[in-house]
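User: What would this chain look like folded?
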Amino acid sequence: MAPRVPKTELTGFTGSMIKRFSRKLIGDVPEPVEVMWHNRKVVKDTTRLGAKANKWDAVDMTLKSFAHMAVAAQVGCSWCLDLGYFQAHDENLDMTKASQVTRWRESDVFTPLERDVLEYAEAMTNTPPTVTDELSASLLEQLGPAALVELTAFIAFSNFATRSNTALGIESQGFSAACEIPLATDPKSSGVVPTP
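Assistant: Here's the prediction, encoded as structure tokens.
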């Protein structure tokens, strides 16, 4: 499927910088940037917020990575799941666990905290959200207030990104093909896992 809004060439000094930086970092220009380049203010502001969110440090990056992938799998954003898996590989996270995020309920590789984070990510992603007092209390006890606030904001931003990409028809670019361990398929999935 082609994106619902056509990609456009990144132009000017900023466009050249984004292309150069993206190719160095992930090997290609992200398709969401090529689509959203039609409105450079949106690209600039969402890129800045995403970069700032990735620098927040009250929650372990592994937990945030798993949460983002859980959101992507639930929403059906193959682009975010593909890139998230590639980034987990690039950041030397536990790839066995990363590969199992799409089927975390059936998998036995996750710790109780990781399972709570994955459940929280899904509960926040449900429409309407289904976060319970018990789950929030458990995470508050395990992480503390600053980390729970950060995790909540990070998952909310993940929902923004995954839902934007999905609505625009942006699909996997094949980043995860570089990973040695293939992504597990969610038994309930209708095929959101990217094909390497």
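The radius of gyration is 17 Å. If you want, I can go into more detail on any region.
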